[in-house]
Specification:
Blueprint lengths: L26 H9 L1 H9 L8 H22 L5 H19 L7 H20 L10 E8 L8 E8 L5 E7 L5 H7 L1 H15 L6 E7 L5 E7 L4 H20 L16 H5 L14
Parallel strand pairs: 3-4
Antiparallel strand pairs: 1-2, 2-3, 4-5
Helix pairs in contact: 1-2, 1-8, 3-4, 3-5, 4-5, 7-8
Amino acid sequence: MISCVQDPPFTTGLTPWAQTLPEHISPTAAKAYLGCSLKFYFERVACIRKPTPIALHLGKAVHAALQAFHLARWRGSDDSPETIAAAFDKSFSDLERDEGPVNFGNDIERDKTRLDGLRVVAAYLDSPEAMKDKPRAVEVLLKEEIPGLSVPLVGAMDLIEGDFTAVDFKSAAAKPDATHAAFDHEIQLVSYQLLIEAATGETPPSLDLVYLVKTKTPQIIRVASPPADARRKRRVVALLETAVEGIAAGRHHPQPGMQCSWCQFKNECLTWLPTQQVPMRRAA
């Protein structure tokens, strides 16, 4: 008789690190760790401050404006273009004050970046992607125990539509390739599905990215992907747990690649040695 062998349940083997586990893991932290564990250390453990890249600064200000719009839709308050533009301007200035400096070459570059942001926000408000109905949730933070993970999973979702579709907004300089975009953000999107399912028992009908593309004429492009099946969820949980294990073990080392050409920590990276003792500190 031939017996059917089933896959064993996913386990982590993290017992040796039980005293050093992070308090939780987020998809953003996991992706950062898996991308380069040494950069993760510089940013999230050693907390080395660097000037904010312009694209990151602009993306955060645009995100704040969209959050103001969606909250206004949720509350039934003022969501006029003028009010949302004012929210963008406030965030643009507040971020400079609170998280600066920003890598602006001069005031002309700063003004151009600000105007680019206002244009892309206006394009979103005029697009079919702008919500017409009341969203189910805006900027919701969930923290849930997920089978296969040694620590809770935490995620902040930009928008949950009425049918539980999870939406994340991305700023981009060029039109995205739909297949690559979904693959690149797989950990984040599937993590959101896991969190929604654990919190509500509902499976999102779609996992969506909405790109705000800063071309001469701004474009708003939605990239939709189907909800994850059991295999995709198992794969993402394994990736999340791999990051948990590495963080718990204090494994931080260079991972050279094309991304090094624009990394802000090249000088710090060059000082790394295999005998380097990395201080242990909680990270998430």
